[in-house]
Amino acid sequence: MVSSTTRVWFITGASAGLGLALTRSVLARGDYVIATARSLRSFDELRQDPKIDETRLKFLVLDVTSPMEEIKHVVEEALGIWGHVDVLVNNAGTLTYGASEELGAEGVMKDMKTNFVGPMNVTNAVLPYMRSRRDGTIVFVGSRSAYRTQMIVRKFGLCIICSLLTPSVLL
User: Fold this and answer.
1) Quick one: three-class SS letters along 21-46?
2) What does pLDDT average to over the chain?
3) Pfam families recorded for this chain (predicted)?
């Protein structure tokens, strides 16, 4: 049972890098984590860590580029674990390197689907539940690579989402 002083975190891209570090940190402070990644196998390192209390950690498969109905299904599954989500962390992301003519529009659109559309869809799937509770925090993870022209386009999209949400999200 989740107490009123602990928080339930839903973290995308939780199997590596910043997402993995954040998952460890949140668990260390005593909160609960629903860790998501494209594959359960990618959580093997975390599962084998003897310092991890798996009673406060659940793993779900989520590809943020999936259709909205699949994302909603994963969010509903997550809500069924501890009843709510207090903090959504949109961390999943990619960066494809290459010359513009090599990547083409398809390469850029693939990254946009992960870095812009994905976080927007996950947020839109979680937000109704946060609104109903009049409580919740949504975090969008950017990148210091944003100075790169391709990344500017991708991550600026997150700024647009945030500015659209800010006036309308009164929890």
Assistant:
1) HHHHHHHHCCCEEEEEECCHHHHHHH
2) 87
3) adh_short
Predicted local distance difference test score (pLDDT) of residue 140 = 92
pLDDT at 37 over 80: yes
**Structural domain total, the chain:** 1
> Which position has the higher pLDDT, 166 or 11?
11
Please report, for the domain that includes residue 160, its CATH number.
3.40.50.720
Give the relative orientation of helices 118-133 and 149-168 as an angle to the nearest 10 degrees: 20
- The answer to whether 8 touches 60, Cβ cutoff 8 Å, is no
Would you say 165 and 140 are in contact if contact means Cβ atoms under 8 Å apart? no
Instruction: Examine residue 3 and state whether it is found in any structural domain, yes or no.
Output: no
pLDDT per residue as tens digits for the range 97-151? 776 677 777 877 888 898 889 999 999 999 999 999 999 999 999 776 555 555 5
Residues with Cβ within 8 Å of 100's Cβ and at least 6 positions away in sequence, in order, are: 150
Amino acid at 59: F
Residue 40 CA to residue 49 CA, distance in Å, equals: 15
